[in-house]
Amino acid sequence: MTTYGSKRIVVGAHYGLRDWMVQRATALLMALFTIALLVQVLWPGRPLGYDLWAGIFSQQWMKFLTFALIISLCWHAWVGVRDIWMDYVKPVGVRLVLHVFTLVWLTGCAGWAIQVLWRL
Protein backbone atom coordinates (compact mmCIF):
# COMPACT_ATOMS: atom_id res chain seq x y z
CA MET A 1 0.00 0.00 0.00
CA THR A 2 1.38 3.37 -1.02
CA THR A 3 0.53 6.58 0.79
CA TYR A 4 1.16 10.04 -0.50
CA GLY A 5 1.94 13.16 1.48
CA SER A 6 2.75 13.43 5.13
CA LYS A 7 0.68 12.05 7.94
CA ARG A 8 -0.64 14.96 9.92
CA ILE A 9 -1.94 14.79 13.47
CA VAL A 10 -4.35 17.56 14.31
CA VAL A 11 -4.53 18.41 18.00
CA GLY A 12 -7.39 20.58 19.17
CA ALA A 13 -9.55 22.77 17.04
CA HIS A 14 -10.08 26.39 16.02
CA TYR A 15 -6.48 27.13 15.16
CA GLY A 16 -5.39 29.61 12.64
CA LEU A 17 -6.71 32.67 10.95
CA ARG A 18 -10.08 32.81 12.72
CA ASP A 19 -8.54 32.99 16.21
CA TRP A 20 -5.92 35.46 15.03
CA MET A 21 -8.67 37.69 13.61
CA VAL A 22 -10.74 37.40 16.81
CA GLN A 23 -7.77 38.51 18.89
CA ARG A 24 -7.13 41.52 16.64
CA ALA A 25 -10.79 42.54 16.32
CA THR A 26 -11.48 42.34 20.06
CA ALA A 27 -8.24 44.19 20.84
CA LEU A 28 -9.25 46.95 18.41
CA LEU A 29 -12.69 47.23 20.00
CA MET A 30 -11.14 47.46 23.47
CA ALA A 31 -8.69 50.14 22.31
CA LEU A 32 -11.46 52.22 20.70
CA PHE A 33 -13.62 51.89 23.82
CA THR A 34 -10.70 53.01 25.99
CA ILE A 35 -10.16 56.10 23.82
CA ALA A 36 -13.89 56.95 23.90
CA LEU A 37 -13.96 56.56 27.68
CA LEU A 38 -10.83 58.67 28.17
CA VAL A 39 -12.30 61.46 26.04
CA GLN A 40 -15.40 61.53 28.22
CA VAL A 41 -13.46 61.36 31.51
CA LEU A 42 -10.78 63.89 30.58
CA TRP A 43 -13.22 66.37 29.02
CA PRO A 44 -12.24 69.77 30.44
CA GLY A 45 -14.33 71.37 33.14
CA ARG A 46 -15.88 68.28 34.69
CA PRO A 47 -14.81 67.12 38.15
CA LEU A 48 -13.86 63.46 38.41
CA GLY A 49 -16.17 61.56 40.74
CA TYR A 50 -19.08 59.17 41.02
CA ASP A 51 -21.48 61.57 39.31
CA LEU A 52 -19.26 61.73 36.24
CA TRP A 53 -18.94 57.93 36.03
CA ALA A 54 -22.65 57.39 36.63
CA GLY A 55 -23.45 60.00 33.98
CA ILE A 56 -21.19 58.38 31.41
CA PHE A 57 -22.61 54.89 31.93
CA SER A 58 -26.26 55.96 32.32
CA GLN A 59 -26.54 56.59 28.59
CA GLN A 60 -28.00 53.61 26.72
CA TRP A 61 -25.44 53.74 23.88
CA MET A 62 -22.61 53.62 26.44
CA LYS A 63 -24.22 50.64 28.19
CA PHE A 64 -24.44 48.87 24.84
CA LEU A 65 -20.78 49.61 24.03
CA THR A 66 -19.71 48.50 27.49
CA PHE A 67 -21.69 45.27 27.15
CA ALA A 68 -19.97 44.66 23.80
CA LEU A 69 -16.63 45.41 25.46
CA ILE A 70 -17.28 42.92 28.27
CA ILE A 71 -18.14 40.18 25.78
CA SER A 72 -15.12 41.08 23.63
CA LEU A 73 -12.82 41.07 26.64
CA CYS A 74 -14.03 37.62 27.68
CA TRP A 75 -13.69 36.26 24.15
CA HIS A 76 -10.21 37.78 23.83
CA ALA A 77 -9.17 36.28 27.16
CA TRP A 78 -10.68 32.89 26.28
CA VAL A 79 -8.75 32.58 23.02
CA GLY A 80 -5.48 33.59 24.69
CA VAL A 81 -5.80 31.44 27.80
CA ARG A 82 -7.13 28.46 25.84
CA ASP A 83 -4.08 28.59 23.59
CA ILE A 84 -1.79 28.74 26.64
CA TRP A 85 -3.46 25.66 28.17
CA MET A 86 -3.29 23.80 24.86
CA ASP A 87 0.36 24.69 24.27
CA TYR A 88 1.80 24.09 27.73
CA VAL A 89 -0.47 21.63 29.59
CA LYS A 90 0.02 18.18 28.10
CA PRO A 91 -2.18 15.88 30.27
CA VAL A 92 -5.62 15.96 28.64
CA GLY A 93 -7.54 15.66 31.91
CA VAL A 94 -5.73 18.58 33.52
CA ARG A 95 -6.17 20.65 30.38
CA LEU A 96 -9.91 19.91 30.34
CA VAL A 97 -10.26 20.96 33.98
CA LEU A 98 -8.36 24.19 33.25
CA HIS A 99 -10.56 24.89 30.20
CA VAL A 100 -13.73 24.39 32.23
CA PHE A 101 -12.39 26.53 35.09
CA THR A 102 -11.46 29.29 32.66
CA LEU A 103 -14.91 29.26 31.03
CA VAL A 104 -16.67 29.33 34.40
CA TRP A 105 -14.40 32.12 35.65
CA LEU A 106 -14.87 34.27 32.54
CA THR A 107 -18.64 33.73 32.57
CA GLY A 108 -18.76 34.75 36.23
CA CYS A 109 -16.64 37.84 35.60
CA ALA A 110 -18.84 38.85 32.65
CA GLY A 111 -22.01 38.36 34.69
CA TRP A 112 -20.62 40.40 37.56
CA ALA A 113 -19.46 43.20 35.24
CA ILE A 114 -22.85 43.36 33.52
CA GLN A 115 -24.60 43.41 36.90
CA VAL A 116 -22.43 46.33 38.03
CA LEU A 117 -23.05 48.15 34.74
CA TRP A 118 -26.83 47.77 34.92
CA ARG A 119 -26.91 49.11 38.50
CA LEU A 120 -25.43 52.50 37.53
Automatic annotation (TrEMBL):
The pathway is: Carbohydrate metabolism; tricarboxylic acid cycle
Where in the cell? Cell inner membrane
| SUPFAM superfamilies attached to this UniProt entry | Fumarate reductase respiratory complex transmembrane subunits
Tell me where the transmembrane regions lie. 25-43, 64-81, 96-118
**How the protein sits in the membrane?**
Multi-pass membrane protein
Please give the Gene3D superfamilies that the UniProt record associates with this protein.
Fumarate reductase/succinate dehydrogenase, transmembrane subunit (1.20.1300.10)
Keyword match Zinc = no
Principal location:
membrane
Q: Which InterPro entries match?
A: SQR/QFR_C/D, Succ_DH_anchor, SuccDH_FuR_B_TM-su
Q: Its function?
A: Membrane-anchoring subunit of succinate dehydrogenase (SDH).
Q: What is this protein called?
A: Succinate dehydrogenase hydrophobic membrane anchor subunit
| Species whose genome carries this gene | Roseateles terrae
